[in-house]
Amino acid sequence: MERERDGPDLLSGVDSWELGDDVAPPPSQLFKALAGTRRCHVLSILLDRPNISVDELTDIIVGWQTTIDGPSGPDEWAQVKIELVHAHLPLLDDMGLVAFDDRESEVHLESLADPVEHAIRFAEQYERVLDRSDRQTE
User: Fold this and answer.
1) CA atoms of 81 and 58, how far apart (whole Å)
2) Which residues contact 110 (CB under 8 A, 6 or more apart)?
3) What pLDDT is stored for residue 68 in this prediction?
4) Is the per-residue pLDDT at 1 higher than 60?
């Protein structure tokens, strides 16, 4: 028995995707990257701004966090930057998704295969849907 579906077909066009020479980590690595909310935000930001300083990236993330959770404390910005520099960006760099130069404090998004970009955008949109749903139930 075939299940009826409502809404858009998320897998539409998958058969035409090609990887080429772009970065396409194995699914387990990609989903590990997307499993962290902060890493997912970083990748989403980098899709729109592929070259960014760590300070600018920190500003954007703290701004989002403030919008969602309310005003942040005075140490919040420093805490986010420390997490980025010591945890999230090195992991994304190890996976080949970004190039992170700690000395220059710069992050560069590598050339990602289309399926990887789609997965990042989907994960970000899915999180927004969950956030909206959580706010409606509060």
Assistant:
1) 6
2) 22, 23, 96, 97, 98, 99
3) 78
4) no
Residue 52: which H helix or E strand, with range? strand 51-53
Compute the distance between CA of residue 20 and CA of residue 72 in angstroms, rounded to an integer: 42
Q: Please count the other Cβ atoms lying within 10 Å of the Cβ belonging to residue 17.
A: 13
* Tokens standing for residue 22: 């772009």
Over residues 93-138, the pLDDT tens digits come to 999 999 999 899 999 999 999 889 999 999 999 988 887 887 777 6
Place of tokens 């592929």: 50
Which residues lie across from 108 on neighbouring strands? Answer: 51, 99
DSSP 63-115: HHHHHHH-SPPTTHHHHHHHHIIIIIHHHHHHTTSEEEETTTTEEEE--B-HH
The dihedrals phi and psi of 106, each to the nearest 5 degrees, come to: -125, 150
Task: Report residue 59 as tokens.
Answer: 């500003």
Q: Of 129, 119, 124, 125, give the one whose Cα is nearest residue 95.
A: 119
Per-residue pLDDT reduced to its tens digit, 89-99: 999 999 999 99
* Residue showing tokens 């997490």: 83
Tell me the two tokens of residue 36: 């962290």
